[in-house]
Amino acid sequence: MPLTFAQRLDNVETSAIRELFKLLGKPGIISFAGGFPDSAMFDVQGISAAVNTALQTEPGAALQYGATEGFQPLREQLSAFMAQKGAKDVAPDQLIVTTGSQQALDLLGKTLVDPGSKAIVEGPTFLATIQCFRLYGADLVSAPVDGDGVQVDKLEQLIVEHRPRFIYLIPTFGNPSGAMLSLERRKRVLELAVKYQTLIIEDDPYGDLYFDAPPPPSLLALTAEVPGSRDWLVHCGSLSKVLSPGLRVGWMVAPAALLAKATMCKQFSDAHTSTFAQATAAQYLADGHMPATLARVRQVYGQRARTMTDALRSELGDAIDFVAPQGGLFVWARLTGAGGKLKDGAELAKRAIEQGVAFVPGAPFYCANPDLSTLRLSFATVGDDKIREGIGRLARALG
Amino acid sequence: MPLTFAQRLDNVETSAIRELFKLLGKPGIISFAGGFPDSAMFDVQGISAAVNTALQTEPGAALQYGATEGFQPLREQLSAFMAQKGAKDVAPDQLIVTTGSQQALDLLGKTLVDPGSKAIVEGPTFLATIQCFRLYGADLVSAPVDGDGVQVDKLEQLIVEHRPRFIYLIPTFGNPSGAMLSLERRKRVLELAVKYQTLIIEDDPYGDLYFDAPPPPSLLALTAEVPGSRDWLVHCGSLSKVLSPGLRVGWMVAPAALLAKATMCKQFSDAHTSTFAQATAAQYLADGHMPATLARVRQVYGQRARTMTDALRSELGDAIDFVAPQGGLFVWARLTGAGGKLKDGAELAKRAIEQGVAFVPGAPFYCANPDLSTLRLSFATVGDDKIREGIGRLARALG
């Protein structure tokens, strides 16, 4: 007799992307497929100093069980970190620390989603969000995105039509679209939240990774300008893209009633986030290293992004269309089919592997109606010369 | 309009124990209420050395995203760690690393429990297990325990009656009962698993904390003696009680099909356990510190357990009944009512706080039919003199 599994597992399948990743071990391949920061950018020295200070000054706290809500000195540092970015009124007890922001998504699914609950996400959006919410039975609705982020008129129509339990957005340099929601649309989104009393989840792991000018303030910061909107906003932050994913330190700001429910659920999910990692992150922030670290990653990723977009234009010409990203880790592009060339992203991904370059086709990032011509290319982990070489290979794969 | 929460939240309530814990800040209180190891026992020097080595030799791995299944060097160390304790045939890829063993429970709930699914747990059992499984809708059935652990004849009756999706046991020095399942009963449990093709979950965070003779082999180790039983066994391990809870490093051994489903779920729960913590734990184990650390905690906790049981006998006499623990962190006791004294654990807990001593009443540890006369007393974090003083206060509270 086989084991009986829970029915919720029928809602998801192992990611199509995972199969592609198995091919990445091929020698000499240049990979634009990743969704992670460059290990070479990690401030190993600063993190080492932080963990040693934490273990010397408060070993009991760093190694013992901690509060489910999070290590208090880290909550204070994160409150201050957000204040520096314009969200000035988030007290430490208005956030909980999560095991990466992935856990924030899981806790939101657990607290908010019943089988059949409607929720709106961007099309395209983060693949693990789609899977995470579907595992709890969510019925996801896709809202269209352009170069300025989610299209708010369409979003309003979808809210009226579906009355979703929440709307999940990555407003700033989102994965995979790289799009930046305009200031005007940000305010409209918050107004819609209040008008329709609908929860907005702002996932913001990339907002610090801007290349030139800072992006508009986060939805969280803008709640100060839209009366009542703070009651309908959840904000998920993360140190993964700016400091280290291996720490698994994220956080979530939410209305008090929701934060209490999420905390109860977290108690039974993993009791608390590693205090060892939390105390290290708190010390790192307290040591004041973050501004220099951010300046460095912005400079390097900005340079790589320009190298990639320049190479795409010169090598692929009008066969590809994209909006140059202003931050984040990704170029999101569309095959135009110009000159009778290939328009299918998945097919191009296969041919590209043969040419020694990898990227992720865009279709899996849609919860419905995928655009099969799309590609996600990450420039974050590849040096400039290799980027040019890789895009050359991509051009050859396109033929 | 208030937020709409998922219906699964109606299955649980914030722990009664949490309310008690709020009282523990009272100055001068002696607390036997905790369920955690003594911070003073942490090997801060060994852990510091391990994290520094990990950051020097493989910073990329320690700080980057990692495989959902776990950091491979840690999986290898954990395989070797289990082999030393008699489970010799667990390959590294037959386990996944979890964010504390609490996450293993959550993943088991997510993969195995549909609303209304039956599952058998010990009465009493770990409180967070009850809540964790109920959050997924489990209908829990309580199997009675005596000084030799779960009563296997009763367990068989309950399996036949309820055909549960799984049976969850803490066979060795369980929380809260402290009981040690006898060797004979261990084999019977595995035979029942095969006979009824029913999954057994062995939660084993305390097995290393024996005071004199080692306990019988784990169910995992004993699967080698009961043909077919390995296909029906899940084993959850943890470094929390023996090394540091703050690392949040646990692991789960399970049949391949279940392990694959749990891995998929973990991908959407927290992507992976902190590689920073995993690399540190792997290095600590590789450095060979664990045997000395275990010897030290066994000696200290054994001494404290004897001090507590001696004091209970001399101070409370026949008003209290218990089986002296042979390992773990807890004395599980029953008020007898002898001499007309109080028999209600919750009432005694209130009076005890007034006398300056805290413990946890036993009733919340039952998923059904609580024994109201029970108490859980942890000796782990209190020195010998304070244990004697605290038990004296408890005797005064009992009147």
From TrEMBL, chains A, B:
<dbReference type="GO" id="GO:1901605">
    <property type="term" value="P:alpha-amino acid metabolic process"/>
</dbReference>
<dbReference type="Pfam" id="PF00155">
    <property type="entry name" value="Aminotran_1_2"/>
</dbReference>
<dbReference type="InterPro" id="IPR015421">
    <property type="entry name" value="PyrdxlP-dep_Trfase_major"/>
</dbReference>
<dbReference type="InterPro" id="IPR004839">
    <property type="entry name" value="Aminotransferase_I/II_large"/>
</dbReference>
<dbReference type="InterPro" id="IPR015424">
    <property type="entry name" value="PyrdxlP-dep_Trfase"/>
</dbReference>
<keyword id="KW-0032">Aminotransferase</keyword>
<dbReference type="GO" id="GO:0008483">
    <property type="term" value="F:transaminase activity"/>
</dbReference>
<keyword id="KW-0808">Transferase</keyword>
<comment type="subunit">
    <text>Homodimer.</text>
</comment>
<dbReference type="InterPro" id="IPR015422">
    <property type="entry name" value="PyrdxlP-dep_Trfase_small"/>
</dbReference>
<dbReference type="GO" id="GO:0030170">
    <property type="term" value="F:pyridoxal phosphate binding"/>
</dbReference>
<dbReference type="InterPro" id="IPR050859">
    <property type="entry name" value="Class-I_PLP-dep_aminotransf"/>
</dbReference>
<keyword id="KW-0663">Pyridoxal phosphate</keyword>
<feature type="domain" description="Aminotransferase class I/classII large">
    <location>
        <begin position="51"/>
        <end position="394"/>
    </location>
</feature>
<protein>
    <submittedName>
        <fullName>Aspartate aminotransferase</fullName>
    </submittedName>
</protein>
<comment type="similarity">
    <text>Belongs to the class-I pyridoxal-phosphate-dependent aminotransferase family.</text>
</comment>
